[in-house]
Amino acid sequence: MSFGGPIDSMIRSHKQNLSLLRKRQKLKDLYDDFDSSQPPKPMTFKEGSFSEIERFKSRLKRERRKNQWRFVYIVFITLIIVMIILYWVVSIDYSPVIDAIN
Predict the structure, then answer these.
(1) What's the pTM value of the predicted model, to 2 decimals?
(2) d(CA 88, CA 98)
(3) What is the pLDDT of residues 55-68, one digit of tens each?
(4) Residues 78, 85: contact at Cβ < 8 Å?
(5) Tens digit of pLDDT for each residue in 66-98?
(6) Exposure letters 11-22 (e unless 16+ CB within 10 A, then b)
(7) Alpha carbons 55 and 48: distance in angstroms, whole number
(8) Is the N end or the C end of the chain the one with fewer CB atoms within 10 Å?
């Protein structure tokens, strides 16, 4: 008994999905490798010298200042564009539109 194209395709994809489902690892199997009985290892950090720390701080300060100025520029340009659009909307001559409506 042949069902034709769409039904046959559906049956074939269902069989393929079942075969993939049997190959799938269970979540419990994945977590078997993880041993929660041992406490986590403490994180270790590289100790930096005073000059390295100062260079890092100055670089962070420079980047922060650069980001602040970038934000100010974006806000300023956006405000100018909004003001130009508002001026254009307010100063347009609406008399032809009003005549067309009436």
Answers:
(1) 0.45
(2) 18
(3) 999 999 999 999 99
(4) no
(5) 999 999 999 999 999 999 999 998 888 888 878
(6) eeeeeeeeeeee
(7) 11
(8) N
Q: Give the dihedral of Cα atoms 27, 32, 37, 43; nearest 10 deg.
A: -80
> For residue 85, how many C-alpha atoms fall within 13 Å in the half-sphere facing its CB?
6
Reduced 3-state DSSP string for the chain: CCCCHHHHHHHHHHHHHHHHHHHCCCHHHHHCCCCCCCCCCCCCCCCCCHHHHHHHHHHHHHHHHHHHHHHHHHHHHHHHHHHHHHHHHHHCCCHHHHHHHC
Mean pLDDT value across the chain: 86
